[in-house]
Specification:
Blueprint: H1 19-33, E1 36-38, E2 50-53, H2 63-74, E3 79-82, H3 92-98, E4 102-103, H4 106-114, E5 119-121, H5 125-129, H6 146-153, E6 158-164, E7 171-174, H7 176-180, H8 183-188, H9 192-197, E8 207-209, E9 223-226, H10 242-268, H11 275-281
Parallel strand pairs: 1-9, 2-5, 2-6, 3-4, 3-5
Antiparallel strand pairs: 6-9, 7-8
Helix pairs in contact: 1-2, 6-10
Length: about 280
């Protein structure tokens, strides 16, 4: 059966884009958001790992910069496991595929692990991208433990990677909760197709504003932190043990939240901001 028809990964067919192409595509974003990185020593090019991150609003601003940094500094072409929602967006899905991203299924993840790839996953998926008011940097993982299952089964270390800045580039004006309280939403969600596509409204994207009333994001500096690898060898053979899966998930979540706090401290002490950035982001 054709692997592509089933949404599986044609690993051998993937050809990474040249680094100079990636850098050219990211040039504007790199200058605009001026990304800062810490903890890169925790990522070993010859020891593949599962990188677990926090998803930021809209899920499109920080990922490409993370991809570029690992490619340039470590020679790692990061393979991302994306929410199926991303692969339904014209043009954007083509960008994702060209960068090596694949739909986040266990089959795809297994193939990548068997090929020894470095993999990025956001356990919060589409729901964490669809921020509600007051959810900046909140980890919304529901009951997901699949990433722990795969890491244990394939004995992959887990590296928490925190991202700070993108959620501050926007203010949520209307979120899914606001929309679902309206008569219009109740009528629209009666459509089985729309209800299924949006998980009964759970994945509805917020309406946000950046600079002034526009959708142009504020030029927040982006900060990334790679935490120390979490060894999954002590969990070997226990991928079907729900209690152990939850224990590992809790460790990863705690570690990721610690990295986010480190970045908040790092940002607070960063004086290299510039006047125009201060004015547009209201940073002191």
């Amino acid at each position: 059966m054709n692997a592509e028809v089933q949404g599986l990964v044609p690993v051998a067919r993937f050809t990474p884009p040249p680094l100079h192409t990636v850098k050219a595509a990211n040039a504007l974003a790199r200058g605009y958001f001026k990304p800062q990185f810490t903890g890169l020593e925790n990522v070993n090019p010859i020891n593949p790992a599962l990188l677990v991150g926090n998803h930021t609003i809209y899920g499109m601003l920080d990922g490409p910069l993370l991809f570029e940094k690992l490619y340039e500094s470590k020679g790692i072409v990061l393979r991302s496991l994306g929410d199926h929602m991303h692969f339904k967006v014209p043009l954007w899905r083509d960008v994702l595929k060209q960068s090596g991203a694949v739909p986040g299924t266990r089959e795809n993840c297994a193939r990548l692990m068997e090929a020894g790839e470095h993999i990025l996953v956001y356990p919060g998926g589409g729901r964490e991208v669809a921020k509600r008011k007051g959810e900046k940097y909140k980890l919304t993982w529901k009951t997901r433990t699949g990433f722990c299952y795969m890491a244990i089964k394939h004995q992959y270390p887990i590296i928490p990677v925190a991202s700070l800045g993108a959620d501050d580039a926007f203010d949520v004006v209307l979120d899914a909760y606001d929309f679902m309280r309206t008569p219009v939403a109740r009528r629209i969600l009666k459509s089985k197709l729309i209800s299924n596509q949006t998980a009964n409204g759970d994945l509805l994207m917020p309406l946000a504003k950046g600079i002034g009333p526009t959708l142009i994001p504020r030029p927040e500096k982006f900060y990334f932190s790679f935490g120390e690898p979490i060894d999954t060898r002590p969990y070997a053979g226990q991928e079907d043990n729900k209690e152990r899966l939850w224990q590992l998930r809790y460790r990863v979540m705690q570690s990721l939240e610690r990295e986010l706090e480190k970045l908040r401290v790092m940002r607070a002490g960063d004086s290299d901001v510039g006047l125009w950035r201060k004015l547009l982001t209201k940073r002191k």
